[in-house]
Structures are given as structure tokens and as C-alpha cells.
Amino acid sequence: MFRYLFALVAVLVFIGINTYAYRRFLRRIDLLQPFLRVLKWGMITIVLLEILFFVTLRFNTLTSEVFLAIASLIGISFMLFCTALVYDLFHLPLNRVSFDASRRLMLKTVFDITMLILAASYMLKGFINGFKLPAINEVDVFIKGLKKPLTIVQISDVHIGKVLGKEYLQSIVKTINTLNADIVVITGDLVDMDIKMMGDALYPLNDIHSKYGVYFVPGNHEYFHGVESILKHLEGLHVKVLGNRHEQVGGINLAGVYDLMGIRMDSPLQPDVKAALENHDSTLPTVLLAHQPKQVKSLRGDEPIDLILSGHTHGGQIFPFGLLVLLDQPYLHGLYSHNKRTQIYVSSGAGFWEPPVRVWAPSEVVKLNLNPKNV
Prior knowledge:
This protein has 375 residues and is of the alpha/beta class.
């Protein structure tokens, strides 16, 4: 039911934003007037393809090439919509200034050309960034009670599936292996396809080098594609699943919870922080893996958690979409102090979901240098 509702809302949203982009931006550009008929039918075609995309998303009927092409159109639609908003915003003061007809025409022409260039640059930069391999982001975290430094390498939201496959994951694993990690953690949304269709796409996980192993918690997308079978497959690749449990490793309690999507889908795999921390060693710091940052809303505030590692947000992926993400999630990207004891790091992710676009939200492999905090 959730996925049907998501598809319906997405269809309505993209009908709206494409209509707005055409009427409030493209149709008002004088240079494009000779091509309005073509543009109009082009936008209608885009809307129809996007409807096809969201309607068939559950059934996995589109080929990889068609999936990527329509996903790219979704990114273009959103960026055109944002450009149209800016175009409207700047038109308001210009319309209130008194100019003679020739000067107004000149200013409008300059403004229209500028906006077309900005729109093209916005899109081009977004697609270039989208296909870039994730950069290494090194972050220092100071934790009270930690007896010796510990290095945790985190990846999140890789979304191996229709578009990103084995070669992409191999490149990420090569990056991880340059970082001499004590622990590697994967904080959800690694898999974005039924595991029966994955083939050997996840096999590179076997090649990850770390002192204490690789740990995983599922994200919302694992629930869309059969979370139980995905977890079983990962365990066969020497990935330890922390489903509402913890292990004492490297001088910390490393805990993990299932994703909040488990509650929404009424899955037996629902997050339970209390169960994850049961019988933990109170003399050691605790690091909790939880895919969605808003898992913190379920905390009372007195839990013995020193650091939470999350993902899910993609850092907004396409600016300014992050502003909408913040309506649902309390944190977007980076290291935050949630309360006096608990810090949270939210990864922007190592891949992308649907449109292969990133604007002001670069993908990353995170190297967290945990250091003792001197009191």
C-alpha cells in the first residue's frame, strides 16, 4: 500500500512541477517562442514517461537503459522546476521597475539568456557529479571513555541495482581498502533490487579488508526488495548483520537496529534500540548504526549511546531538495551533537537513487577517526 501511495503522490507531483516549469519558465523565454509547440509536446512526453516510471517501479519491468533514461528525466524535471522558481522570483522586482519598452526588452533578453545558461550549467554539473566515484571524507570524532583510537569506515546508500552494479561496488571497495579500517560499516540502502536478480553484483564485499570485519544494518530500500533474503545473502558474504543487537569489538559496543520502514510495512524486522543495547558493556562507548537519522526521535535521551551513524538523506542529492528532506529528517549531512552525550554522523551516501544527479551533495566514503575525549 505504501508503494502504491508513493507512486500516486510522485505522479501528481511531477505533473505539477513539469507544468509549472513549462508555463512559468520555458513558455516565457522569447528565444524559445519558435519552438513552443515542440517544447510543449516534449514536456508532455516527459510527464508520460515519468508516470510510466512510477507506475512500473514496483514491478521491475523496465530495462536498465530505459530506467536510467527516465530517471535522468526526473532529475531534469526537478532542476527545471527549481530554475522556474528562481526565474519567477527575479521577475517580481523587475516587473515593478519603470523602463521604456526597448530597455525592458533588452533586460529581459539578457535575463532570459542568463537563466538558460544557469539552467544548463545546473543540469550539466549535476550529471557530472552524479556519476563521479565517491570522495573520501575524513572526520574526527572525540568520544568520552574510548580507551584507544579507532577507525571506522562508513558507506551508505550505494543502491546497487538497475543502474549501479558490480563494477561500481568494486571501485568503492578499492577505496575502502586504502583506508586501513578497523571496522567497516554499511548503514543501509546497499541493495535496490530483488536479490534473485543481483547475480554476483555484491561479491566485491568479500574483498573488503578491515581489522574487525564488516557490519550492516538494512535501510528502507532493502524492505522494498525482500529484506530477509537480502540479509541472508549478505551474511553469506561475511557481512555481519546487526539487527537489534550489538557486538563488543575494537573497544566499543557496536550496535545496530532494523529500519523504521519495518514499522510502516508491518514487518517482523522492526527497530528496537532497547533490544540492541541489552546486556551491553557499560564501561565501553557505544556506537549505534541506524539507517534513518530520525531514529533519534525514538530515543528517550538517556540511552548510553555515544555516536549514531546514519545515511538515508543523500545530503539532499539535488540542491535545494535537502530543504524538503529536513521536513522529515532532523539532520541532513555531517556531524551533529544530538545531546550532551550522543553525536550523530549522517552520510550523504556513496551512490544515488533514481536520477543520476548530485548538486551540492557529493557522494562519499567516510573515514571516522574516533579518538578518546579528554575531560
